[in-house]
Structures are given as C-alpha cells and as structure tokens.
Amino acid sequence: MGSEERDGRRQRASTPQQPPLPATLAEFAELARERLDPGTFGYYAGGAGAEITLRDNEAAWARLRLRPRMLVDVSRRDTSTTFLGQRLAHPICVAPTAFHRLAHPDGEKATAAGAARAQAPLCLSTLATARPSEIAEAAPEATRWFQVYVFRDRGVTRALCEEAAASGFSALFLTVDVPYFGRRERDLRTGFALPALEVPSLAAAVGESDARLDMRAIGELLDASLTWRDLEELVGTSDLPVVVKGVLTAEDARRAIASGAAAVVVSNHGGRQLDGVRAAADALPEVVEEVGEEVDVLVDGGIRRGTDVLKALALGARAVLVGRPVLWGLAVAGAAGVERVLRLLIDEFDLSLALCGVPRACDLGTSVLERSLHGPSAVGRESGTF
Amino acid sequence: MGSEERDGRRQRASTPQQPPLPATLAEFAELARERLDPGTFGYYAGGAGAEITLRDNEAAWARLRLRPRMLVDVSRRDTSTTFLGQRLAHPICVAPTAFHRLAHPDGEKATAAGAARAQAPLCLSTLATARPSEIAEAAPEATRWFQVYVFRDRGVTRALCEEAAASGFSALFLTVDVPYFGRRERDLRTGFALPALEVPSLAAAVGESDARLDMRAIGELLDASLTWRDLEELVGTSDLPVVVKGVLTAEDARRAIASGAAAVVVSNHGGRQLDGVRAAADALPEVVEEVGEEVDVLVDGGIRRGTDVLKALALGARAVLVGRPVLWGLAVAGAAGVERVLRLLIDEFDLSLALCGVPRACDLGTSVLERSLHGPSAVGRESGTF
Amino acid sequence: MGSEERDGRRQRASTPQQPPLPATLAEFAELARERLDPGTFGYYAGGAGAEITLRDNEAAWARLRLRPRMLVDVSRRDTSTTFLGQRLAHPICVAPTAFHRLAHPDGEKATAAGAARAQAPLCLSTLATARPSEIAEAAPEATRWFQVYVFRDRGVTRALCEEAAASGFSALFLTVDVPYFGRRERDLRTGFALPALEVPSLAAAVGESDARLDMRAIGELLDASLTWRDLEELVGTSDLPVVVKGVLTAEDARRAIASGAAAVVVSNHGGRQLDGVRAAADALPEVVEEVGEEVDVLVDGGIRRGTDVLKALALGARAVLVGRPVLWGLAVAGAAGVERVLRLLIDEFDLSLALCGVPRACDLGTSVLERSLHGPSAVGRESGTF
Amino acid sequence: MGSEERDGRRQRASTPQQPPLPATLAEFAELARERLDPGTFGYYAGGAGAEITLRDNEAAWARLRLRPRMLVDVSRRDTSTTFLGQRLAHPICVAPTAFHRLAHPDGEKATAAGAARAQAPLCLSTLATARPSEIAEAAPEATRWFQVYVFRDRGVTRALCEEAAASGFSALFLTVDVPYFGRRERDLRTGFALPALEVPSLAAAVGESDARLDMRAIGELLDASLTWRDLEELVGTSDLPVVVKGVLTAEDARRAIASGAAAVVVSNHGGRQLDGVRAAADALPEVVEEVGEEVDVLVDGGIRRGTDVLKALALGARAVLVGRPVLWGLAVAGAAGVERVLRLLIDEFDLSLALCGVPRACDLGTSVLERSLHGPSAVGRESGTF
Q: Which positions in this protein are listed as binding FMN (chains A, B, C, D) (predicted)?
C-alpha cells in the first residue's frame, strides 16, 4: 500500500463520522484493549511472571519528583537531542516491538509512516512483519534503526543486517536480554497463539516461507550462547554502529563499551523477560555514571508521560524508546494513531520543558529531580482528593 | 447585588427548610460535585497529567506527624499571624482561583463577602469574573490582594494592577508558574469548555467585551517569555509590594528576593501545572531555610485540615492559601458557604493549637513535627479499624 | 443489680441456645457494630478528623516485627508485671472510656465484673455512668484506678477523687490531653447525640441530677487552663499516686515526673483528640528512654493483639490499656463479653511469650524487635496469598 | 496402593477428557480452593493471627530486585546445588506439611511420588498420614528427610526417627518453632476440625490406633520444654545429621551449630506460628552471615516463583523448601499435580538463571540483588498498566 492510499484512509478516518482520536495515552490503551482480541492485547500488554517489573517500570518514573524553575523565558523551546552524532528533533523514539500486523493490517509500514510524520526515529524489530527494505520505502524520510536478534543460523541475521544497512538504516540495536523468551503468563491464561503471519526473518531462519511458528519455536531459533565476543564480531563486521539494548548494570555498560558498542539502551525489555529485575529508571543512573561521558545512553520501560521523558533526560539519557503506547496507537488508528501517540508525548515533553523552566532539552540535569520515597498516592486521604 | 440582598438570601438559606451547611470540607466537596456539572467540577477539582502532584499535595501534609505538648494553659488561643507587616486574625487566606461565576452566579463578590465575614484575606485572580473595584465594593473591610498574570499586552496587566491599587488592594501576587497552562486531562475527558462569561481582564486583553474564549486561547494571551527582569520591573513600577507565587526551590526563592519580591508563596498551583513536581509541603522547608529570615513565606496546595495549617506554620510559613475548598463552599451556598468553609478551617486550626499545647500561632516551630515515612494507612489491619 | 443476678444471666447467656462468644477481637467489633446503633458505634469507634492517627495507632504496632528465639523451655510462662509496686497477673488493663451504659444497660459495673474475672485492672472514667463506690461494690477484688478529668469546678473533681480513694481505688490517672474534646467527624455524620444518661460526675458538675448534656456542653465543664502546677497540686493533695495519661514526648514525660507523677501513660487518646499526632507505638521509645528507669510507663492506642502487648513490653512499657475492644465485648455480651475479650488478649499474649522464646514477661526487651519500613501487605502479590 | 496402580491413574488423569494441569502456581491455588472444603483449604492456606507474616513472607521476596547480567553463554545451565554433602539436581525441596490425606486420598505417598519424579527431596512431616517406611516404598529413589516434632513421650519420637533412619531417610529436621501451635484464626472462623485420619505418630503417642484428635489435643502431646540440650541429645543419639528448622536470628543459628546441628532452615513456619515475626527473606542474610561458611542454610516461607528461589540462593541459601504450592498440586491432581508444581518452579528457576546471566546456580551471589524500598506496585499509575 502506497503512502497516498494510506493518506486517503487517514483522511477518511478524520471525517466527522469517525470518533476523534484520544487525547491521552491511557485512552489509547483502553481503546486498543477493546479492539484487539484478548490474546493479542495480553501479548502486547503483559510482562513476565507476576508483572512486578512491568508495573515498577512505570512506578519508578513516578517516584522521581520534579524541582521546576520559574521565570525563565520559555517562549521558545528546543526539544532536540542528539544520538550517535545525529540531531533528533525530539528524544521520543519508537521501540522495537514484534509482529505489528497483529495490531493493524498495515503493520510496521503504518508504524513507520506515523513515526516519520512525528519525526520520531523508528527501531524496526527483527520479528517485524515487513522487510527492512519495505520500511525504507514506506518511510524514506524517517531515521531508521534495526533491532537485531541473533539467530542460531548467523547467516539469517547477517542477511537482515545487510538489508537494513542497504536500506538506509543507520544503526543496529543488538538485543542482549533474550537468550530465551521470558515466561509471560497472560499468554498462558489467554491461550494466545501467533496466527499465521508473514515474518520474513523467521521464514528465512526456518527456510520455509509459510512456516507457522509459536513463540517457543521462535525462541529456539535464537542463540542462547551469545557472548560479548559475538558483539565484538558484529561490531567488527558491520558498517553500522552497534547499540547494545538491554543493559541494567554499570558492569555490563562498561563491558559493552569495551566490546565496541556505540551506545547502550538501559532496558528490561518492558518487564517481559525476567520479572523482578530493577526498573529501568532505577538502573539508568548507574549506567550514565559509568559510561555516560563516553557514549550515548538511551532508556526504555514505563515511559508514558512527557514528564517521564524529561526525567530520563535529566538523569542523563539522550532519548527514550516507547513501545506499548505506539502499539495502542497503531491498533486504534494505524499510522494516524501512531503519529498521534507520539505527538501527545512530544507535546507533553515540550510543555514540561516550559513548565520546568528548562527550555532546551540539552540543559536538563539532575538539579530538576528529587527522589521521593513515596510513589503516587492511590487515593486522597478520605473520600478522594477534593 | 448589594450586600443587603445577599444577607437576605443567606438568612433564607438558614431557615429550617434549607438543609444545614456541611460540617466538614469533604462533605462540601461532595455536595459541590453533585451541584456542579461534571465539566465544571472537573475543571476545579482536577490537576495536570496523572494527578500525582494533586494527590501528593494532600498526602505530604499527612506524612508530617505531630508531637503535641500537654498541660499548657490553652484556655485562650491567639490564631493571629502577620504578613507584610499586617496582622491577620488567622493564617487562612483565600487562594486566587479563576472564574467564580462558574461555581455560583454571584462569583467573586460572594467569595469576597464570605471571606470578609471570616476575616480571611482574599487574593483575587486576574481571571476573575468581577473587577477589582467591584470586589472592593463588595467587601470593603476585607484584606484584598491581587493575583497577576502578565498578558503579552502589558497595558492590560498594568491597568488591572492600577485598578487593584486604587481599589485598596494591598499587594500584588505575581504568578510565576504559568508560562502556559498545564494539561488537565479531566477537562479533555469531560469536554469542558468555558461557557460565555464576562471576564474583565480577558475582554481588555482581546479588546472585545463579549469575546468567548477557550483555555487555549486564554493561555495564548499570557506572556511565556517572562523573566526575573519582568519581576524587577513590576517591583519598580508598582506602589504595592509584589509577592511571587509559585516558587518550589530555594534557588528561585533566593532569586525572587534578589529581584525585589516582598514575599514568596510556595506553590505548585494546586497540582494543575506540571504533574510530578514535589508537593508543596515537601518544598516549604528548603524555601523557609533559604529566605524565611528575610521575608514572609506563604504556602498553598493540599491544605484541607486545620492541622495542615498548623503544620505549615510549624514549618515556617506565615499563612496558607486555600483554593478548592473555598470553591466548594461557594458552589454549595455562595458567600455563606465560603464563610462556613473558612470558619471550619479556622476553628480546626484554633482547636489544633489547643490540642498541640501551643496556644499562640506565632510560637509554632518544628519541635511539634515529626516526618514519618508512612502516609495514612488506607485500611486497618484486618477488617477495618476497630 | 447484684453480682448474683449478673452471674445468673451469664449462665443463661452460655446455654446452648445462645450463640457462642467470638474467638477474635475483630469479630467482637463486627458484632458490636451490628448491635449498637450507628451513632453509638461511631462514637466509640471513631477518631478525630480524618482518623489518620486512629489507623496509624494500629499500623505502628504492625510495623514492628519480631525476632523470636527458639528452644527455650516455655512450658511455664509468667505473664505477670508490676505497676506502682503492685504485681499484676498480666499486663492487660482496661482503659478508661466514657458512658458504658451506651454499650450495655449494666454499664461500668459489667465492665468491672468482667475485668475482675480476667484479673485485669480497670481504670474507671470520670465520665462513667456509675459512681466509683458502685464499681468497688461490683468488683471488690479488682485492681481499680480512677481517671480524672478536671472540671472548672474543682470541688466536683475533688469529691470524685475522694470517693475513689475511699472506695479502694489505688491510683488516679490524670488525663492531660483533653483541654477540649477533639473533633470527631463520625459523630457529625451520624448526628450522634448523647441519650439521657445518669452520669454522676456531670450531675455534680452542673448541679442538677437530671441534666441532659451534649458533648459540647460537657467539654465546656472541663478546665482548659490546666497546667503542670495543677498536677503538682493534685499530687500534693491526693493520698493516691497520680499517673499522667496522654504524654507523647520525652519532654512532657520528664515534666510529668518533675511535677510528681508516679507514672505516665503514652497515649494519644485513641486517636480521638488531635488527628495527625504520632502513633502511641512511635512515641513510646523516647518516653521510655527519658523516664523509664525512674517510673513505670504504660501505653495505649491500637493494641488489638497479644503480640501488640508483647511489643509494648519489649519497648519498655509495664502494661497496656485497652479501650475499644473492651467496649465491643461489653456491647456483645456484658460482663462475659468483657471477660472474653480480655482473656483472648491474655491468652494471645501468653502464647506469644512462648513462641517468642521469652517465657517471662519481665524479660522482654528490644532484642526481640525489628523496626520494619513495611507495614502489613494489603494483599499478596497476585491473586491473594497462596 | 502400589506404584503401578498410581501410575495407571495418572495416565487416566492425563487423557484428553481431563482438563490440563495449570501452568502457574496461582492457578493451582485457585483450583485447590475450589476442590477442597473451605475448612481444609483454610487450614493449609492460613497463617497465625492477622496473617501479617504470612503475607510478608511473599512480599519480602518481591522487595528484592534483580541486577541481571547479559551476554553470558547461558545455553547450558546447571541448577544443581549441594546439601549435607549430597548433590541435588536443583534447589527446590518439599517442605514438611501435615496430614496430606486431607488434600488427597493418596496422601504423602502421592506427594513423595510426585517429588521423586521431579527429583525434589522430600521432607516428611511427623504428622504425616503415612509411615516413613511406606514413603520409602512409594518413592525409593527420592531423597527423603524426616521432620521431627518431639512428643512429651520421647519414645514415640525415638521410634519414628529410628524408622526413618531404617527406611533410608538421610536427615532429621528438628522443628524448633512449635512449643505450641500458633493461633490460626481461619480455622476458628471455618470451624475446621480434623476428620478421622490415620496418623501413625499420633496413634503411637496416645497409645490408641483410632484416636481422633483435634489440633489442641495434638499440641498438648508436644513437648514445650524443649531446649538446646534436647538438640544436643538428639544429635548425640541419632546416626543421621540433624537439621534445625525454624531459626530466625543469627543468635539461634550460632546456638544451633554449637549444639551440633548439621544445617539450619530459616523459617517462620509459613507464618503459621507467631504473627508479626520477620519474613524469612528478611532473616536469611543475618543467618547466612553468621553461620553460612560453616554449615548449609536452607530457607522456606513465601517461595512462589523461580525468581524467589534464585534470590534465596543469591542470599546464600543452599536450597529452599516449598510448602503450600505442593499441597495445591496434591489437591488438584495427586502425584501428577505435585510433580507439575515442582517442575514449574524448577523450570522458572532454570529460566531465571539464564535471564540473570548466571548459568550455574552455585555462582549466584548478592551482586545480582538490590534491596528495594518498594514492594510491588498494586496498580499502575492510572487505569492500570498500559
């Protein structure tokens, strides 16, 4: 589907008969829950185990409180940041997530189009239902990165990376926290099974174009024996900078840099891998302290508000990756939904720069933060806040 | 409407047929929720974003625990305090809030009358639905302050300030935390839109007497480029002392004083501007430590109990501003409701002085306080407290 | 009603047709809630203001965790303690609470009888619906103390104390935290009004035997100008030791001892006076540290479990006072209910001595305690504890 | 019933008509709740008093957060550990719990069979509804330990231990935290009464083969005067190593070792004895620090996840004991259910080793842990996690 046709549909989507797009990410999530079948919604929404880390990812951002400054001229803001030497219009990027055609028939192409309209870099998953070259065609203007899962069959991985490089993707994001998939109990409860989907990487890995795989079978295609040496090899053989995604400790951040990583992403895979690992916001400071002066640090996990973005940058991140909310936007309204979700975050971030008295994102620092012992109060003191 | 007529109605309101006024602020809030349409109630009740700060404002006062002293002669209490050299009968003041005619047809005039009867200073909002001169006429005996939003058209602001000064208002409260309005999601959910309202300041700012504006349009009239220099200029050109409202850090408090502020108000705008900023009670100590020996410090945000007032004064504030509860009083019973809400707080404050063993408000200090790690328990241990 | 008749009824109460008495204090509270009218239940159950302190009293005991010791011979326990040089069979005493005829027609006489059977000292309230002499007659074998409110008309107080002394009461407990009654909002909500009740002290204070008073009127009879000098005077003129009830700080404990107090009770009046004051369990350590080597320290507030009693003694209290649970016992089954409630606590305390490995109550110390940052979990991690 | 017959039934249980076994422990608990009568379920599920410790046991594991390491070759894991010099295939053992015929007609024999199939050591309770020799016959290949309650009639205890030793049980676990049974209020509420059950130990203790006993009567058979000397005596007279189960302090751990214990189990008896004692996870570190270099330390209480097992080993435990979940497995599907519950834990543990980057259980240490002030968030910030 070309971009014209998509634009046509978007236009129809915004005719008066259509309900307007939500104005908050929570409403996008609610609408997505209504539209998707429970299995698919649960696959995206869920985390590993008891979902302690899933919830803590969000709570940890909320535990950080802001110390805003006043009477700064904030009539002009600069939300831009840099990553790998490139200027980004704003620090909100699309995290790599799998199988976008589960959420919308246009899949990753719609995501990429929406991201491009919002000037948001897009990180395409190895488990995408579109090829890197298709994404490049769908969103030629977008900054594109390619997320790498290393298959046991290294040829498959190599071919995908080469296609990404040839298609103008500008960095590889090596995911290091999935030797095996985490145990996602929502999927067990809903009985979620992947429907028949064209997943180019998997077709290549199993050597059959119409292989229908379950998550267990997919997991078995991945290489659980990966080590830092494999990172070094990837760095050595790739023309693209390699970013290590999934670091939660200073030790691993140091190791990644020593092995040639161009940047690191502090991430616990959205709470989907090992339940009970620390929240991303709690791991970020030690990583920034260890390697922040040498390389760029990104973070993902629980970013749901413009103020979360601001807090991440104040802690030293260059940018953030956003996963589930983008999927909710995609499920609700395709490319237009993705764009809207991103714009909501961008606008909130822009407003929070103004209200924090730090008009330039690059000037954010820890002086605007305060760590609180207290998470958000569940309720007001008596009969609700009044 | 003259004060006589209003008194007449108040009398009618207290005839046996009328339900008696509530005895707690929580009940006022509940009644107001019933009486106001959901959009208006939400506009007043809501905060920015996820309302973390809105709730934390209340919770932070509750986290402070009291260490009361016994066997002090408390048969006579002195609730009085001073502000800008003036004696106040008690430390409970009416915070500036917008558009009182949304809550009651008599609007700010009723608020002012109720405040005057409770001997509570009133801070009139720039976004009032009455002129400063009308308020002076409605409540000539009240201590009146004027809250200043700086319009891009400085002439409008100047004219309002001059009218306030000429009408016997005794201080200007420059709000410094609204370069833009915060994002209040309750309004998005309810679809709240300002009805047609006469707002003298806005009419002047747009040059049309019957302009109907939405919050976005109003926000665009404000000057987001305001800096400390503008404060200096206001201080230089105004005959009235200028109080800076919206300070949350020691740094800004110092800067405000250096720029000529006569006092500061520790405030996060009732949690309506930037969600996630620290609670007012959490910011107050560092501001008092920084400038409390040089100028008067006020505080607002989450004050719902006489003990909250006591805690604020014990932390070094001279007085507190109360916003939403006054609006609930206004919505429920006009001037009589405002008076009642204020008297409930005053009486609770007076009683808490007695029960704390500190009969004179001016003797309050941190020795009566203890910071607890524990907010109020949501429930008793088992089946509720017994 | 003589003790024989009461015993007769108790026997009837325990015939098979009667439902058996509850086995937990929570069930007593639940039954009392069913039996009493909502106003009376609320009067007893409620606290001041938002009931933060009411709930925190219970939560604070729960925040203390136990470090039990094993393989101690606990086949024989000694629950006894001493107070004012007297041996008590166990440390659980009946707190002074008002108007027992609200809970049961036999009023304080039933309470005293139940307490006597459980070998629990009883502290009779000034606001009792029975005279000290009647209580002495109803429970001659019980250890009896008399709680003193000082009326403006000192003659009334003096006469009551003299009657108590003459009736074999062995100590006066001067309540120091009620210059005025706290604001109990449950009573405002339920519209609770005291029914016609014979209250000997009040009849004397107003000089009319059938005066029907409300709480406000009663409050006005009390002397809010009481100071440490009045304590000194009471100590000087009374033949009985004077215990100061209502101390929450080391400073006041020191002052009480300096003024001649024979002991102090750490208490916040069951959370009924000033909401937001620290929990009794949180105040106890500093009081024990200040005066525990010189005088006996008691504590009340939130004691609902035998382990709470153990924790109180481990923190240095000689004994505890129990209020509301005794009233629930009284409401449910008169003297038998009181006895049962007390025995449940005594038995739990006895068992907790065994399970803590400290068979003698007098050997309890802080080594069995650990302060936890974590109150009781509201729920298990997922679908409840399993 | 021989093993063949049992296998036959298991096969029938796994025919397609049968519902499949649950995939999570929470579901096992839910199914067990449905299948067992409320009294029996409550007897197993409940704890002492207000169940603070019961819930805290689970919460305390959740308060520990993980710091996982990446890019370690985890394609092969080694879950094995050692205990008393013996290699265990994995660290998940079956805790001693009473009366398995309450849960399933096959009782402990089914438990033992399921444990054996999962290569899990089994600790048989003194209060088992099967003799040690029967268990040896039912699960000859299993590692078997015998839990010892010391009866007042020491001959009974001695005979049981000798039977255990003769039947190939390889260690005695002396339970030291039950001089008396804790007060389990769920049983009081449900009116739980033990049905007629053949309990060989009790029959021996009372000298009647068909004695029907209640928990109180059973408690009275136990010796509450037990001391460390009795441990020394047991150590001296037994050919088997003696493990002390129920230690919660460094002091008692030291004392146990000094008295000849071969190992200790940090345990609060699943929160069933003294409510308010510290969580097992909170007590473990000080015990490991005190004696961990000299003897093996086990832990039980609140282990519900493979990550809880990993955390226990990271804190220095050699293995963990699992109680209630095994009973749920037994209640739901006999031996097959026990096996399944254990395998779920083993598989989760194995996966968590991989995802933590520590492929060998013996390499776990505190560097993978972080103590958090924050338990699991009850909810996401707004309308649930999204």
A: 96-98, 125, 147, 175, 245, 267, 300-304, 323-324
Is C65 annotated as contributing to ligand binding? no
Best of D61, D274, D282, D372 to substitute, by most chain C Cβ atoms within 10 angstroms, is: D274
Helix ranges (DSSP H) in chain B: 3-13, 25-35, 38-45, 52-63, 107-117, 132-138, 154-166, 185-190, 200-206, 215-221, 228-237, 250-258, 280-291, 306-314, 324-356
User: Cα(A313)–Cα(B49) distance, rounded to whole angstroms?
Assistant: 19
- Shortest CA gap A385–chain C (Å): 13
Token readout for A203 is 């077709």
What is the C-alpha separation between D274 and C80, in angstroms, rounded? Answer: 20
Which one-letter DSSP state was computed for residue C270?
Answer: G
**d(C-alpha A308, C-alpha A304), whole Å:** 7
Q: How is chain D split into domains, by residue range?
A: 20-354
pLDDT for position C31: 97
β pairing state of A86-88 and A81-83: antiparallel
CB contact under 8 Å between B226 and A73, yes or no, is yes
What tens digit of pLDDT does each residue of B138-195 get? 999 999 999 999 999 999 999 999 999 999 999 999 999 999 999 999 999 999 999 9
C-alpha distance from residue B241 to each of B179, B229, B295 (Å): 22, 16, 12
Which two structure tokens, joined as six digits, stand for A51?
A: 């979902």
pLDDT recorded at residue B212: 76
Pairing of strands D86-88, C92-94: unpaired
Determine the CATH number of domain C26-359: 3.20.20.70
* Token pair belonging to D70: 């990446």
**Looking at the predicted structure, is the pLDDT value of residue C6 above 50?**
no
Start-to-end CA span in chain B (Å)? 51
Q: Quote the DSSP letter at residue B274.
A: S
- CB-based contact A96:A125 (threshold 8 Å): yes
Residue at A297: amino acid letter: V
CATH 3.20.20.70 fits B25-367, yes or no: yes
**What pLDDT is recorded for position B215?**
86
Percent of chain D with pLDDT over 90: 86
Phi, psi of B155 (to 5 degrees): -60, -35
Q: Which residues share a beta bridge with B245?
A: B175, B265
Distance, in Å, from the CA atom of C178 to the CA atom of C150, rounded to the nearest integer, reads 10
Question: Selecting from 3.90.1150.10, 3.20.20.70, 2.170.120.20, 3.40.50.880, what CATH number does the domain D20-354 have?
Answer: 3.20.20.70
Quick check: B108 and C285 in contact, CB under 8 A? no
Alpha carbon C275 to chain centroid, angstroms: 18
Q: Is the pLDDT of residue B2 over 50?
A: no
Is the complex ipTM more than 0.90?
yes
**How many residues in chain C?**
386
Instruction: Report strand pairing: A319-322 vs A369-371.
Output: unpaired
Taking domain A19-359, whether its CATH number is 3.20.20.70 is answered by: yes
Contact present, A28 and A325 (Cβ < 8 Å): yes
Do residues C51 and D156 make contact, with C-beta atoms less than 8 angstroms apart?
A: no
Is A305–B180 a contact, with Cβ atoms under 8 angstroms apart?
no
How do residues A230-288 score in pLDDT, each as one tens digit? 999 999 999 999 999 999 999 999 999 999 999 999 999 999 999 999 999 999 999 99
Helices and strands (H and E) in chain D: how many: 15, 12
Distance CA D76, CA D79 (A): 10
Does A378 sit within 8 Å of D373, measured CB to CB?
Answer: no
Q: Tell me the average pLDDT of chain D.
A: 92
Subunits close to B (at least 3 CB pairs below 8 A): A, C, D
Comparing A349-363, B40-54, D194-208, which segment has the lowest mean pLDDT? Answer: D194-208
Task: Give pLDDT tens digits for D64-107.
Answer: 999 999 999 999 999 999 999 999 999 999 999 999 999 999 99
